[in-house]
């Protein structure tokens, strides 16, 4: 379930993304993805949750941001802690925007909500948009952690984790390192996009703002239950 707050340039004639449209979307995405253009829009997604939340849900926020850093779309959703619904719910959030002017999806991590693993490749295939997933720290891998936390479900979780592939370490124009996975675009274009949306440090603005939004909503929801 997702909640759309507002979306700029909304149009009743905009086409919804579906699995049947994925092949056409993949072909068209390359033609409309030019990271150097001023009008490019990124859909940034981040989460917030408390480990011992009784609802066992994280709050997801998605922000549509233009290259000039104007925000013209926000949507909220959730994911189950330790669950397997993050990919489906992110796709639902994107569909609810009813936008055909988004050029790229940027994810603040792929292993969210206590190992609810996001399938970046599937999101790229379903939407036809390039996908960039960012993380900030090096890691020797999480397979042992997955086996420990999911003794009865480790096979599925390990398959999901291994499908993500290896990360590339890159250096932003700010001098800060970042670890990324990407689908539907080249490393050069991914770097152009990341540098365009990063003002300082290592956090691109679409995911930074999405994180703030997710935290704000998560706190508000928690206060309602007190």
Distance from first to last alpha carbon: 23 Å
Instruction: Tell me which CATH architecture applies here.
Output: 2-Layer Sandwich
Report the mean per-residue pLDDT as an integer.
86
Helix/strand/pairing class, anyone? alpha+beta
- The ordered string of helix (H) and strand (E) elements is EHEEEHEEEHEHHEEHH
Quaternary state of the chains: single chain
Strand order of the largest sheet: 1-4-3-2-5-8-10-9
Low confidence ranges = 5-31
The fraction of residues assigned to DSSP E strands is: 25-35%
> Which shape, going by the Cα principal axes?
globular
Gyration radius from CA atoms, angstroms = 17 Å
Total beta strands: 10
What is the compact description of this entry?
The protein is α+β, with helices and mostly antiparallel strands and 226 residues long.
Describe the protein in words.
The chain is α+β, with helices and mostly antiparallel strands. It has one domain (3-133, 182-225): archaeoglobus fulgidus dsm 4304 fold. The chain has helices spanning 22-32, 86-97, 120-127, 143-149, 154-163, 187-196, 205-225; strands at 3-7, 41-48, 57-66, 71-80, 104-108, 111-112, 116-117, 131-135, 168-171, 177-183. A hairpin with a 5-residue loop joins strand 9 and strand 10 (177-183). The model is unreliable at 5-31 (pLDDT under 50).
Q: Which structural traits does this protein have?
A:
alpha+beta, archaeoglobus fulgidus dsm 4304 fold, two-stranded antiparallel ribbon
How is the secondary structure organized here?
Blueprint: E1 3-7, H1 22-32, E2 41-48, E3 57-66, E4 71-80, H2 86-97, E5 104-108, E6 111-112, E7 116-117, H3 120-127, E8 131-135, H4 143-149, H5 154-163, E9 168-171, E10 177-183, H6 187-196, H7 205-225
Parallel strand pairs: 2-5, 5-8
Antiparallel strand pairs: 1-4, 2-3, 3-4, 6-7, 8-10, 9-10
Helix pairs in contact: 1-3, 4-5
